[in-house]
Amino acid sequence: MICSISGEAPEEPVVSKKSGLLFEKRLIERHILDYEKCPVTGETLTMDDLVPIKTGKVVKPRPVQAASIPGMLGMFQNEWDALVLSAFASEQQLHTTRQELSHCLYQHDSACRVIARLKKELDETKTMLAHLERQAPMPASTAMIPNASPLSNGKRAAEDDELGPDGKKIRQGISARIITELTDCNAALSQQRKKRQIPSSLAPLDAVERYTQLNSYPLHKTNKAGILSIDIHQSKDLIATGGVDTNAVVFNRSLGEISSTLSGHSKKVTCVKFVADGELVVSGSADKTVRVWQGSENGNYDCKHILKDHTAEVQAVTVHATNNYFVTASLDNSWCFYELSSGLCLAQVEDSSPSEGYTSAAFHPDGLILGTGTSGAVVKIWDVKSQANVARFDGHVGAVTAISFSENGYFLATAAQDGVKLWDLRKLRNFRTFSPYDENTPTQSVEFDHSGSYLAIGGSDIRVYQVASVKAEWNCIKTFPDLSGTGKINSVRFGPDAKYIAVGSMDRNLRLFGLPGEDLEQES
């Protein structure tokens, strides 16, 4: 009799009532306790189904292998081989289990990424839907309510982070409707320019020659001194300044006091611009962000949009003539075209030259041309409708720090380390160069006044030139010393009708130059 489990003669044999198979009692009882079924047939089996068999005591014969020392060594060798094979099988099983676990973790991570992607797409769809609802015609009762903003407490509600195959953000582009709007604006302004006349209220040449410092206003912090950018609201006579102290300041010149301090940037404010027909200010910073500030009735400005589309320091901001769009330029080799009301980046144009970040930018007065200056001493002219580079001006030394279009529509002034160059946009050539400073003193600012009659240059001092024709001489009619003592003029701007000049340098003070009598008359 042989046990069906061990294959050996049982010491206490039992037989199953159901299958009739013979088992060693201790083995089958342990198996029933663990599995409650027959190990051979798989049928349900209990202790009551076992019937003991009475046999005589039999002494088991010793196996043949155990009868000699060589036989026992052979047995030990076989057991050792079996143990090694069992260990190898266990290692193989462990390796397989680890691979299965790794695959499961990868699938879980992929599922989490898909879920996160779907949530982002859902948020973007909601944002686009809200934007379309804002663009829909409104009832007359709500027509005067400002456009709703996709921001909450000055933060963008959803980022435009849809990525294309190349890993870059997908932009919706400048639509045909917007191109039509830009073209109509261009046509209207070009028609007006043909009839343009120098306003009778413009400051005359002999008055500019007698300009002197009127006032000096400490607008920024002493421990982080420096005004990097200035802009003037021509109709309201407000002055905006951007400082090294991370703040932008809106200054009321007629009252001689600060209207609002715009705090929020984490690094120096490199550029500021007013929107001409609204209570809006756009600022760019070295913290890679652009902020749109909304003015209120009490004179304060609140952050309406925070735009984070650039990956390097924002160097320039310029507002389109429609006052509905603006462009930012950055050291990340790209410029962005934004819709002002929603803060959406409609297009981001990257430079093909990886080493040339943008250091300055300005719209042509008619709005269909954008001029940009690069850190590689190149001036580039862009067609805004197609975002194509249509012209390139070489010849400067050092980064192009400032760029300004004349109101006549065909003069362009650019500033760099080597001075100021004047370009004729009709023939795409340089017709005059000013080198007022030594080679170690860069020209930081250049600006035409709103009438196109005067040109101001800022470097180690401030110089004002009378604008002439391409062939005629451009005479320097006035030179102002740098009263800050820093030797670096960062920004120069003309006030309304060139009645005063605002200057920002590397100290904390905004300085105004003009005629004392004119200043008192305007304030009264």
Automatic annotation (TrEMBL):
One of its GO terms (biological process) is mRNA splicing, via spliceosome. It comes from the Eukaryota. Keywords: DNA damage, DNA repair, Immunity, Innate immunity, mRNA processing, mRNA splicing, Nucleus, Repeat, Spliceosome, Transferase, Ubl conjugation pathway, WD repeat. This is Pre-mRNA-processing factor 19. The keyword Nucleotide-binding does not apply. WD repeats lie at residues 262-294, 351-392, 393-433. Pfam families: Prp19 (PF08606), WD40_Prp19 (PF24814).
